[in-house]
Each structure stands twice: as structure tokens, then as C-alpha cells.
Amino acid sequence: MKRNIQLTALAVALSSASATAAIDARSFAMGGTGVSNANFLTSSFHNPALAARYSDSDDFGMILPTINVRAHDSGDLVTSIDNFSDAFDRWDESNGSDDQAKQEWIDALSAMDGEIVNADVSTGMVVAIPNRYLSANFFAMVNASVIAAPSVDDSDFNITDPDEELKSSVLGLGAGTVDIGITLARELQVDALPGRLYLGVSPKFQQLLALGYSASAEDADDDDFDFDDANTSTGFNLDIGLAYDINDQIQLGFSAKNLIENTLETNSYTGVNGSSTNATYVVGPEYVIGASYQTKLFAVSADFDINEKKYFEEIDYATQFARVGAEFDAWSWAQIRAGYSMSLNDHSEDMITAGLGLKLFGTAGIDLSAGYGSDNNYGVAAQFIMQL
């Protein structure tokens, strides 16, 4: 019997890291905030309007690259897989005579039923040219999400021989977007408003990728889960943003991303009931509001997701967060950051984040950040920046 019943469930999810919302490393460290407190260089990831908010000394900026990886194993599938494998090894070595090992194997198999692993990966680059006429950012970003889970067949609990074939299977769904576009923004002069108002838009070419995967226990192989096999479609999408500086310390922001809803079916795969099926990847509007307060040495910010972000039409899985963050800035040379993201539904977990920024002579530098949450929820991010 092939004992790697759902080893692929974890491998599929985590292998996507070699292949989600694009969040730069500074924002990641600050709990994911950015709608009101992103700078002109990271505005394409959070709020297009902020491309027009820059200082007199800013003439050019570049991020090459930014990358973040997040994985969530809410049911502790890693431990269940280890227990499953160890128990089967003992049962197999005893030629089926070790009843205790068999029972431990059955218990581990039962523990895997219904568990889900998901992972998000994003990477991107930006070239920014701020100016008083029409600030422009050229950007490219890739987002990938994977959800994988065991599908345990009850008949496998009744097998009596280690060489008997399992009926349980591996199910995995992967999806992603490739965005290439330009952010255009400028400050608007409104006499009735005492502060500064910014408006931005990011038209973009967008490619969708969607992949369904299923395999029996004996055939499961994580190498078979490859985004090169995904269905693809291409089209156009649009992000818009609005920002308002009440004064030099208090800022407000609103962003609407992916205003044009696009869907893409995966390739056909074998579902839980054994019949051929498809899943439908969804890229739809995401609305976020935010507020921030900042001085030369200190900043705090908060973002709120107005709506849930759904991944697949057929799967009851979506994310929605409220976020807060803070940053201490030592004369533009070094920054210490911390944040917290709170899940607003039962599908995700809260996460604590922290990070460090180092910028040589205030121009070139690196940002590093990491996050941790309960139920095996981890994340890391890094980026290289240049700002002139």
C-alpha cells in the first residue's frame, strides 16, 4: 500500500512558494496596512492615488524585487501526516501483525479527514517616477494561492493488509494572477477642501491561472502539481484609489482593486465523489479603507477590508481582515515596524508581524519582515529598494 496518502496535500501547498495579494515587506511588517500609509514607491500594491504623494527630494524609485510567502496549516496536517507515516511503517514492518500500529495509523488517517492547508505567494517589481504633472509607476506582480486537502474514503478504515490499495485521494486547487500595468496619479486642487486630495488609477493587463489536481493515494506525487499545466486566460482589469491628507499628520485612504470581475475554470479533475469536476477561480473587486497618523519619527496606521476575498466559487473559503501597524523611523536610515492583522471570519487566523528596514544613506536598502499566528500560520517577506 502506498502510505503517502496525502503527503502531497502539504507538498502541493508549500511548493507553490517556488512558483498572495501582493504586499510589500514594509506593509507586511505593519500588519498589511498600506491604503493610507504606503509611499509613492509601493502605491501600486495598495492604493494608486499614493503615487502622487511624495517629497520634494523624490525623483525616482525602484523595488526589485519584493516577495512574500504565507502558509496556514490550521488543522495541523503536518503532525497528522507524520503520525500517519510512522504508524504505517511499524505496521508494514510487522507484516500486518502489529495491531497497535494499525490503530495508530487509522487514528492518524481519521485526523487528516477534513483538514486543509493553504499558501499564498506574491512577488513583484516597481519603477516609479513621481512628478507634479502626472506621477507614474510601472509595475509587475505575480500572486499565487493554493488550497490542498485529503479526501479520506471510509472504506480505508477497514483494510486488513498493508499492501491493500487505498481509495483515499489527494485534492488540490491552485490559482494565480500575473498583473502588468501602469499607475497614474496626481494631486487634485479642490478649493473647498483644506487638505490635499489625491486620485490614482492602475490599468493593467491581467493573466489568470487555475489548476485542479487529484490523484489516488498510490499515484499522488507533488511533482505532478505544476502551474505549467494550469488553464489560463488573459484580459484587462483596473484598480482605483483615493487619498486625502487632512493635514501633515493625518491621512485617509480608499482603494478598489480588480474592479472587473474575472473567472476561470480549472482543468477537469476527479472530485470527492469520484466524478469529473471543475472549480472556478474568482478574481473580483476588493475594497479597503484606511487611516494613518505620522510624524517624522513615528507612524501608526489601520486598514479595514470592506468585503471578503473569495478564491473559488465552489469552496467555502474567503478572507477578510482588519489591520493595524506602527513604524519608528530613525532619520530615514533605519526603521523598526510591528503590526497585527485580525481575521474577520472563521477561515483565517490572526497574525502578529514585525520587521526591520535598513536604508544606506537614505537611498538604497532592504526591508525584512515576518509574521506568526496560531494554528501554524506563518509568513515572511523581503524586498530591495532604491529611492532617489
Automatic annotation (TrEMBL):
InterPro entries: Put_conjugal_transfer
Pfam families (UniProt xref): TraF_2 (PF13729)
Gene3D superfamilies membership: Outer membrane protein transport protein (OMPP1/FadL/TodX)
Signal peptide annotation: 1-21
This protein's UniProt keywords: Signal
Protein name: Conjugal transfer protein TraF
Organism: Vibrio ulleungensis
Taxonomic lineage of the native organism: Bacteria, Pseudomonadati, Pseudomonadota, Gammaproteobacteria, Vibrionales
